């Protein structure tokens, strides 16, 4: 049984962009790679069919004899949790989906998956929930009816629901012991005051504690978001479109319902820098997260692609800042840009620095801003941009070398953009990024006014006024964004990517 959440910053496998920055750094060290500018990311072009009920079916045949991947993308995440007191429900549902139906119990489901030789998993993010299965392709005919059953006829009684909410609470408590999760929670709620990105995917502690009383609401949540028009099935590997479509139509064709479209508050523009100092109750590595408010991910222009390039230029291992602060002066133990914050709505570009024995967050914050300001004044050398672009592009096909990785890449980019071929568009757009684009996003987006800095100090070293977070920290009552009631919050974990180790609970 599964451990759900891993802290985002440690989840290297996570988003394509995150992976690409790390790979990029490695490749820069080896010399640049020049991919074919006209090449596609995937070796084949997926087909997209939409059933009359709105369910989309993406099929990607690959040369992977006997192996297939089956992903179900639900385009609902923590972002959709707009109602006060109900944060964390998208993630809770990731758990509930393994609790069985009237036809098949949770235990029977797990047994069935094992008998098929299937490896199943799921995770939740701010923007979506993804259910993944890797299995022998010949077993698809036995998998699809079972998947259709749980997506249409999920069934659980109140005691079962309450048991699962306690598992989620345990997950929250376990993750509260991770300093970067507390930092991420504070960064989110400081950078966002109205939009639902202000709360973590796990949700507020008070909301999680209240979940056992929300059995009826949970059933409403399922009806509102687990609908065919909010889901996409992605099947990749040793499969054929016609056969997959026939099975999916047979078993999912009668699924009905329409997605609820919650009105999500628009976050007002940030006009001044924000800063929070935190203190951890015991020994820990001092750390700084600097988050810049950035536009929603888009491929309609080059800004999102240019931000990705900028992340590698400014904060990868080959960057001047890294070379000075980490390699030469050894003032930092590590420096990276998460960039990967690829979101449906305006999100954050995050720079993450682990500090050494004599932390100086102010000097670091100034150095990061100076790096960005310089890029905003002077475009980077064309050769450096070209090398970074080359390596970022190379990392896209490299991150999709198996049916499961290919299906997940399609799912993740589709979740954010709605476009099944978004990865190809990104691949092309990256090639078009110019030094002037990097200069533009640095000067217009990554500015002091858009910055939120979170500094974490170990016990005994924090400046006056630093807020205690982590185990033993007092519970706080703060204004929940965009709502009238005031649910208490506590330091928690964030990041979505609650990943289960395979199987149901
Ligand atoms: Zn979980």
- Amino- and carboxy-terminal Cα gap: 6 Å
Order of helices and strands: HEEEHHEEHHHHHEHEEHHEEHHHHHEEEE
Write down the Rg. Answer: 23 Å
Helix content: 25-40%
Structural class: alpha+beta
For the biggest sheet, the summary is: 6 strands, mixed
Backbone shape: globular
How many helical stretches?
16
Low-confidence stretches: 5-37, 477-505
Q: In percent, how much strand structure appears in the residues?
A: 15-25%
Number of strand segments = 14
List of distinct ligands in this structure: zinc ion
State the CATH topology of the largest domain. Answer: Cytochrome Bc1 Complex, Chain A, domain 1
The largest beta-sheet arranges its strands as 1-2-6-3-5-4
Give the CATH superfamily of the largest domain: Metalloenzyme, LuxS/M16 peptidase-like
Structural account:
- The structure is a single chain.
- The protein has helices spanning 16-30, 89-96, 106-116, 140-153, 158-175, 179-191, 205-210, 215-225, 241-252, 303-315, 320-328, 361-377, 382-398, 403-417, 422-432, 435-444; strands spanning 47-50, 56-61, 67-74, 119-124, 129-136, 231-237, 274-279, 287-294, 332-337, 347-355, 451-457, 467-468, 476-477, 488-489.
- With 505 residues, the chain is an alpha+beta fold.
- It has two domains: 51-252, Cytochrome Bc1 Complex, Chain A, domain 1, CATH 3.30.830; 285-457, Cytochrome Bc1 Complex, Chain A, domain 1.
- A hairpin with a 4-residue loop joins strand 4 (119-124) and strand 5 (129-136).
- Helix 1 packs across helix 13 (382-398), helix 4 (140-153) runs parallel beside helix 9 and helix 10 crosses helix 13 (382-398).
- The longest helix has 18 residues, at 158-175.
- The N and C termini lie close together (6 Å).
- Residues 5-37 and 477-505 have low confidence and may be disordered.
- Bound molecules: zinc ion.
- Zinc ion binds next to helix 2.
């Amino acid at each position: 049984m599964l451990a759900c959440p891993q802290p985002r910053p440690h989840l290297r496998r996570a988003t394509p962009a995150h992976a690409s920055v790390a790979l990029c750094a490695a490749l820069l060290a080896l010399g640049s790679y020049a991919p074919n500018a006209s090449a596609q990311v995937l070796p084949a072009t997926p087909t997209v069919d939409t059933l009359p009920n709105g369910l989309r079916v993406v099929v990607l045949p690959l040369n992977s004899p006997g192996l297939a991947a089956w992903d179900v993308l639900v385009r609902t995440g923590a972002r959709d949790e707009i109602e006060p007191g109900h944060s964390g429900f998208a993630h809770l549902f990731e758990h509930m989906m393994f609790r069985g139906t009237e036809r098949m119990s949770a235990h029977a489901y797990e047994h069935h998956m094992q008998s098929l030789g299937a490896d199943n998993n799921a995770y939740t993010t701010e923007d979506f929930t993804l259910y993944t299965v890797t299995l022998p392709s010949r077993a698809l005919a036995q998998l699809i009816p079972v998947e259709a059953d749980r997506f249409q006829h999920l069934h659980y009684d109140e005691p079962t629901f309450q048991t699962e909410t306690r598992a989620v609470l345990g997950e929250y408590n376990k993750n509260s012991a991770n300093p970067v999760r507390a930092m991420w929670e504070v960064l989110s709620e400081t950078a966002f005051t109205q939009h639902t990105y202000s709360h973590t995917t796990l949700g507020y502690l008070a909301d999680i504690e209240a979940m056992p009383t929300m059995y009826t609401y949970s059933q409403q949540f399922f009806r509102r978001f687990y609908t065919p028009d909010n889901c996409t099935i992605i099947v990749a590997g040793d499969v054929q479109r016609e056969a997959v479509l026939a099975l999916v139509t047979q078993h999912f064709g009668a699924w009905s319902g329409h997605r609820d479209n919650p009105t999500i508050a628009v976050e007002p523009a940030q006009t001044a820098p924000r800063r929070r100092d935190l203190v951890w109750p015991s020994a820990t590595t001092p750390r700084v997260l600097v988050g810049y408010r950035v536009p929603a991910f888009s491929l309609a222009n080059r800004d999102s692609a240019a931000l990705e390039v900028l992340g590698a230029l400014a904060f990868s291992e080959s960057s001047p800042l890294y070379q000075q602060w980490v390699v030469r002066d050894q003032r930092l133990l590590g420096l990276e840009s998460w960039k990967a914050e690829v979101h449906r709505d305006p999100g954050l570009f995050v720079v993450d620095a682990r500090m050494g024995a004599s932390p100086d967050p102010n000097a670091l914050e100034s150095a990061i801003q100076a790096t960005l300001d310089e890029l905003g004044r002077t475009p980077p050398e064309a050769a450096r941009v070209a090398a970074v672009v080359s390596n970022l592009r190379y990392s896209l096909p490299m991150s999709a070398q198996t049916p499961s990785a290919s299906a997940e890449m399609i799912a993740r980019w589709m979740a954010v953009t709605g476009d099944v071929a978004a990865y190809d568009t990104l691949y092309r757009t990256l090639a078009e990024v110019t030094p002037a684009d990097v200069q533009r996003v640095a000067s217009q987006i990554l500015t002091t006014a858009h910055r939120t800095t979170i500094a974490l100090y170990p016990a005994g070293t924090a400046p006056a006024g630093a807020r205690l977070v982590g185990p033993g920290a007092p519970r706080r009552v703060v204004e929940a964004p965009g709502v009238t009631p005031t649910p208490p919050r506590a330091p928690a974990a964030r990041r979505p990517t609650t990943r289960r180790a395979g199987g149901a609970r």
